[in-house]
Amino acid sequence: MAAVDFYDRVDLYDRLFDWDPATERDFVIGASERWGLVRVRRILEPFCGQGRLLRAMPGEAVGFDLNRNMLRRAARDCRVFRADAARFSVRAGSFELGYCLIDSFRHLLTEEAARAHLRCMGIALRTGAVYVLGFELTGDMPAAASAEEWTVEHEGVEIRGRFSGLGDQDPETRLETARVEIEAGAERIDEAFPMRTYAREQFQDLIDGEGSFEIVVGFDRSYDLDRAVEL
Question: What is the C-alpha to C-alpha distance for residues 118 and 204, in angstroms, rounded to an integer?
Fold first, then answer.
């Protein structure tokens, strides 16, 4: 197995997540139209990566990330800047919509970092704006239920991806080991890294304690705005 940070492999990341972003884009925009109180002109994406979803957004969309390789790819056709999601600064109220999908929020490994991120987003967004925050509530989920697998084909090469939590959550830090396994032709990547877990009550406590946002509604990853789920 290769000892490599797959997030540095922008070429492989591009291929592995090469699906139509329209469903995610329409969900984010639709959520703002349904529950937002302000007209959307500017959109902000933390953890924007290589800009896969940022490129699909209408209007003026801006993203940021810490990974320089990802930002170089995103900067070809997106407005991006480099920043830590727990310590970023933009002009107050300069965005009317924010979104952060595919579990990126769980890369904030402490309660302090998560609170700081929400505080920064609360400053960045106008009052009445929607923040679409997408991640799995894995704190009360069996490890086997957290696994996701998918296959894509790129230029005749089949690429298989698998993401799973190993179920080794530390009760004090609420960190678990997440594992990414990728097969792309003859190349194999097997990488493990920590992610923070949230049960429903823990996330509600975080939101209530920080105070910048309120939870309006929850969904599963089907991205169907007409099928809300109880958080």
Answer: 13
pTM for the predicted model, two decimal places? 0.93
How far CA 29 is from CA of 26, 32, 146, 225, in Å, comes to 5, 5, 27, 11
Structure-block tokens of residue 127: 């009052």
**Beta bridge pairs of residue 64:** 46, 81
pLDDT digits (tens, 9 = 90+) for 14-34: 888 878 899 999 999 999 999
Contacts by residues 33-38 (CB-CB < 8 Å, ≥ 24 positions apart)? 34/225, 35/130, 35/216, 35/217, 36/96, 36/97, 36/128, 36/129, 36/130, 37/127, 37/128, 37/129, 38/96, 38/126, 38/127, 38/128, 38/129
Q: Which amino acid is at 114?
A: A
Per-residue pLDDT of 66-92, as tens digits, reads 999 999 999 999 999 999 999 999 999
Adjacency order of strands within the sheet including 157-165: 148-154, 157-165, 175-184, 187-196
Q: What is the pLDDT of residues 133-191, one digit of tens each?
A: 999 888 777 777 778 999 988 888 899 999 999 889 999 999 999 999 999 888 899 99
Contacts of 141 (CB under 8 A, 6+ apart): none
Torsion of CA 135, 136, 140, 142, to 10 degrees: -150
Q: Which residue has the tokens 């493990």?
A: 192
Contact indicator for 132, 31 with CB cutoff of 8 Å:
yes
- Closest Cα partner for 116 from 95, 87, 90, 91? 87
Burial class (CB in 10 A: 0-12, 13-18, 19+), 206: middle
